[in-house]
Amino acid sequence: MAKDKKMVEAITSMDEDFAQWYTDVVKKAELCDYASVKGCMVIKPAGYAIWENIQNELDRRFKETGVQNVYMPMFIPEGLLEKEKDHVEGFAPEVAWVTHGGLEPLQERLCVRPTSETLFCDFYAKDIHSYRDLPRVYNQWCSVVRWEKTTRPFLRSREFLWQEGHTAHATAEEAEERTIQMLNVYADFCEQVLAIPVVKGQKTDKEKFAGAEATYTIESLMHDGKALQSGTSHNFGDGFAKAFGVQFADKDNTLKYVHQTSWGMTTRMIGAIIMVHGDNNGLVLPPRIAPTQVIIIPVQQQKEGVLDKAYELRDRLSGFKVKVDDSDKSPGWKFSECEMRGIPLRVEIGPKDMANNQAVLVRRDTHEKTVVSLDELEAEVAKMLDTIQADMLERARAHREAHTYSAVNWDEFVETINTKPGFVKAMWCGDQACEDKVKEETGATSRCMPFDQEHLADTCVCCGKPAKKMVYWGRAY
Amino acid sequence: MAKDKKMVEAITSMDEDFAQWYTDVVKKAELCDYASVKGCMVIKPAGYAIWENIQNELDRRFKETGVQNVYMPMFIPEGLLEKEKDHVEGFAPEVAWVTHGGLEPLQERLCVRPTSETLFCDFYAKDIHSYRDLPRVYNQWCSVVRWEKTTRPFLRSREFLWQEGHTAHATAEEAEERTIQMLNVYADFCEQVLAIPVVKGQKTDKEKFAGAEATYTIESLMHDGKALQSGTSHNFGDGFAKAFGVQFADKDNTLKYVHQTSWGMTTRMIGAIIMVHGDNNGLVLPPRIAPTQVIIIPVQQQKEGVLDKAYELRDRLSGFKVKVDDSDKSPGWKFSECEMRGIPLRVEIGPKDMANNQAVLVRRDTHEKTVVSLDELEAEVAKMLDTIQADMLERARAHREAHTYSAVNWDEFVETINTKPGFVKAMWCGDQACEDKVKEETGATSRCMPFDQEHLADTCVCCGKPAKKMVYWGRAY
Fold first, then answer.
1. What is the pLDDT of residues A206-237, one digit of tens each?
2. What ipTM was assigned to the predicted interfaces of this complex?
3. How far apart, in Å, are the Cα atoms of A277 and each of A14, A22, A358, B237?
4. Which among B94, B103, B161 is the nearest to A71, CB-wise?
């Protein structure tokens, strides 16, 4: 495969420099590019097509649970942002401020939404009157802006795309139920579609969302052993409702405050796909999220009938997302290009294959080659895509299991964090001082208090006082 | 139908006050609401569902022509906006300026995109190298901001949603071809899906897009006789390419400038649907864009078997977008509510209908009632939705024909413009002074020089000099 060398050489090995490998894949797989505004990105067709698939899959799942889409303005007046105390403290330092409209200075500054709780609350306060108006289960797809100092494509950018769901309920129980329901939608989507296994749990008070009563999270583990917060779901109780006056007349004719939730998932999931599944040949896409699932590459395409056969196979495979690479590049170049782009399955067809009524199937994830009879092509492709999807999830799960450790005392904890990239499970007393100490001395943070609790020890791994919770700790993106 | 009165009374009659009627429909059909930022809107579920259908229909048509979706940043540095002289003059007076990121003032102001030509050019200048990179046929779905002084929901708001396509081509011919191709996509979409007939033509130099060589437009006529620019497609020639240095190495190894186009359609089309099809009972949606096409209303639903029958019919009609209104409101209230919301077809089913194995179908557009046998239900519903769609287009076309006039001299022109709401066709010398005079003395503007030219007279309707073009004139939103 000497011909492939040039393209493959252009990627840094992931073992050598994971950060550079990531940047190389983003660039070489043509997912996104830097823009003229620092920290903003141009999402290119190959990257945006993945986002469209994420949108379609999530949106369908949302709507099955009764979600309705809406669109709120992108601007928040400063006075509105300030209505909920914790919220403004969390977000004001990192928003972009609009001060002029046209040639005139504005009377009140507007921030570009970093998230839209305040806008939904302002709207709900006018729009909700009676218990008959509840629940409100709204979502919007939009872009938001957070003026981050350090940025990385997809993982942390000053502008990113996301969805944000915002709901209002008559009771605390119903709000909590919705919060967990949406977390489960995210977890199911990650595992079933993105082939990324997640740990479900609750954030500590230190790590929860500004203004939330409880934040739930799904945490995934990247190939380099760092954690990625992959989706969050917040229960606000009636805190925002009180700050914004969102009240309804209940069946008993008394005025009550609504209970609210919000939940979001972002374009950073494209970064997660890269870092969970990618390898030294580039991107590896799970079949269920891949914009192109099958690429047909004609070999010796100048020979009579080869291209026609490739088109015939494409037509036969029209139940999948299929393309023929009929460009004038060499087959070797095409092979490494479709590997770089992460296309799950490659079908090679040349004169010799035609003579034998066969094609060669090559899996992107394992590079495994299988010769199949053309009579069985559709069934074999379907089977192989299913296998790839299942194997990718299992491999990612095995990687996470192999990189999840536990520690019962401080020395063991520090040693593990420092030498073994991955999650470390350890007991915690519930005191923020211990989280601060862990952060300061190891750079790790509490990722979550998992729903699946284990009793590893009686005492906090940090201070030795009685333990309240088992926590997943790790360094994170 | 005394019970319906309350709801219907709440809308102003369109003949009495069209502007107030429009506002009433927007509000009562729950399409959108005002936001806390002046001139911005909250698009509510009923409005956003229409936008989602517009997006799906357009996006599918775009992709069939080879369009790829991308996402560009929402911010444009001031220096970038200024690169193309005509463009900045057109847009700078009406943009929102970001001057602070977090707590720090920015070194260079950023405007919130009013349109993204400059961003695409900046990107293409880096991304296009060779003729092999062409054509680039990119589109994005996003929101844009224009700091308008006078705003109206959907028709003119400070922030609105749209798609903007931006393409780069090797030759002038190919760019012109794409410009016209996309105009035709818009025209076809308006007529076939929105049931809104359009006049296709070219804008005069006075009315063209800031920085364009040629702007093509589709113009539609609202119920009150005012015109609405409904979609535009611009050919930039190589003007932007020269300003931004977008060059490629052609097959002959010489460096050439690309030729560019852009084209857009916005949420104002929701306003067009309201103003073309609506009536004094509210919104009337064409079946192909309606989020709910068929509503089943049980009559005497407390009687045994009625609700079950309604659900059974819903299941049988699952090939359509169908809902049952099983709320505890009265049938009369439900009737006027589904009229207000513009649902194309209503199915009434009660005990007497059940006894006769029939249902009553009521068309939203004509209020016509038809009793159909339940044995024929699916077929009758399909047929009736097709008929409604076709009739709505024909009625809108007939309305436009009846409100399209021609004038061959100044007195006739002014008399027609002032007394007959609608389009006025008249000859024009090509001189902007005449356009200015028309605007000043009648408030009308040149809507377009239609592709279908007619020879109405030899001389300009305004100055009497030799005529060059027939123009559609009208007052416009």
1. 999 999 999 999 999 999 999 999 999 999 99
2. 0.96
3. 12, 11, 30, 44
4. B161
